[in-house]
Write a structure and sequence with these properties.
The protein is an alpha/beta fold and about 375 residues long. The protein has 2 domains: about 1-25 and about 70-280, 3-Layer(aba) Sandwich (Aspartate Aminotransferase, domain 2); about 40-50 and about 285-380, Aspartate Aminotransferase, domain 1 (Alpha-Beta Complex), CATH 3.90.1150. The protein contains 13 helices and 11 strands. It has helices spanning about 1-10, 30-35, 60-65, 80-90, 105-115, 130-135, 155-160, 185-195, 255-260, 270-280, 285-305, 325-335, 360-370, and strands at about 45, 95-100, 120-125, 140-145, 165-170, 200-205, 230-235, 245-250, 320, 340, 350-355. The strands form 3 sheets. The protein has a 7-stranded mixed sheet, with helices on both faces. Strand 5 (about 165-170), helix 8 (about 185-195) and strand 6 (about 200-205) form a beta-alpha-beta unit. The longest helix is centred in the C-terminal third of the chain and has 24 residues, at about 285-305. The N and C termini lie far apart (about 65 Å).
Length: about 375
């Protein structure tokens, strides 16, 4: 039975898994991503993982309830259909799509395909840490280049660290944990200067929240013709489906075939298999979430400014701000008040990242902020 299912998956094209240079003064703690995955305690307001605090739309939630009668079945017969639905969404060929257990798994595939002993990953810092952990797991060196003064990727600095041994570069746009944008034209120029042997992953997990402009545009809003580029997306953020684990890559057919060699077999759950199309087609629901997030984000900024705080301009569903005090102390203060906020990030000793919650949750957040012993005197720091 196992071998026949594997053969069936192969027929669908589903593969079977067969030195940091930082200018800012900081010790980068190994395993930061692993610690972020520690078990959570019940009863906390969770403003720490950049989830959609409102959950899926009503239409998708109803589909989830209806899908529970399929959880006793393997969903592999739906793989082709899901691939076609995602391809249609982006107006590309199905052979340019590979879905996985969250876009984080796509990062693992890229590390397995293009890194290893003697190979290097070049990335910004701070950024989403998963790809660094995967790179180290396969024996690669990691070169981390600090963001520039505007908290965007220092692409010139990253390019200066690229060598013939650089198998992979990583760009998170909008970036996590800063919520900032690196201009599209600058990224295009960066890619054009990379060696032909270097692959670039562009992580667009927060794409839906970013305001489209001359500065920002997705790399899959136009035909993706460069064989070296992998763009990742996820259903974990604006769709409110983080717990159902579905992300995907958009790339050239040649790139997709290479990544397939390392995909986890049966990585899709049965509930997600039933609702993908409904989630994609719920344009009204997605629009409502984007508008609500924009309003919530502006309200957070307003509340911060009232307290003489200047949150960094964000294009995501979280906000980063400088507390002028050790982040670890602020994080612990909120934890004592049953609020979880983002972990401490490399190079950001005094900054905290706050995921946007519901209005009620954010009122509780600010009440807890006002109980900081130095909050009322913050303007004097």
């Amino acid at each position: 039975m196992r071998s026949s299912r594997r053969d069936f998956l192969r027929s669908l094209g589903i593969g079977v898994a067969s030195g940091s240079a930082v200018r800012w003064p900081l010790k980068v703690t190994p395993g930061a991503y692993a610690s972020a995955r520690a078990p959570r305690l019940d009863g906390f307001i969770r403003l720490d993982s950049n989830e959609n605090a409102y959950g899926p739309s009503a239409k998708v939630a109803e589909a989830i309830r209806s899908a529970t009668n399929m959880v006793n079945r393997y969903p592999f017969r739906k793989y082709d259909g899901i691939t076609e639905q995602i391809a249609s969404l982006h107006q590309v060929e199905p052979k340019q799509i590979l879905f996985a257990c969250g876009s984080t798994e796509i990062l693992r595939l890229a590390a397995c395909a293009f890194l290893g002993n003697g190979r290097q990953l070049v990335q910004p810092v701070p950024t989403f840490e998963a790809i660094e952990d995967y790179a180290k797991a396969v024996g690669s060196d990691v070169i981390s280049v600090p963001l520039d003064a505007s908290f965007a990727h220092d692409l010139d600095g990253m390019l200066a660290r690229v060598r013939s041994s650089t198998g992979l570069t990583y760009i998170c746009n909008p970036n996590n944990p800063t919520g900032t944008i690196t201009p599209r034209k600058a990224i295009e120029s960066f890619i054009g200067k990379l060696p032909l042997t270097t692959t670039v992953v562009i992580d667009e997990a927060y794409h839906h929240y970013a305001v489209k402009s001359e500065t920002y545009a997705s790399f899959i809003d136009q035909p993706l013709t460069d064989d070296r580029v992998i763009v990742t997306r996820t259903f974990s953020k604006v769709y409110g489906l983080a717990g159902l684990r579905l992300g995907y890559a958009v790339a050239s057919p040649k790139m997709i075939e290479r990544l397939k060699n390392f995909i986890t077999q049966d990585s899709l759950n049965a509930v997600m298999a039933e609702i993908v199309g409904i989630a994609i087609n719920d344009v009204e629901g997605i629009g409502d979430f984007v508008k609500r997030n924009m309003d919530d984000r502006q309200e957070f900024v307003n509340s911060g400014q009232i307290r003489m705080l200047m949150p960094i301009s964000s294009q995501t569903n979280f906000v980063l701000m400088n507390t002028q005090h050790p982040a670890t102390e602020v994080i612990e203060h909120f934890r004592k008040h049953n609020i979880l906020i983002g972990r401490r990030f490399p190079l950001l000793d005094t900054y905290i990242r706050v995921s946007l919650g519901t209005p009620e949750q954010m009122r509780t957040f600010w009440q807890a902020w006002d109980m900081l012993p130095w909050a009322k005197k913050f303007m004097h720091h």
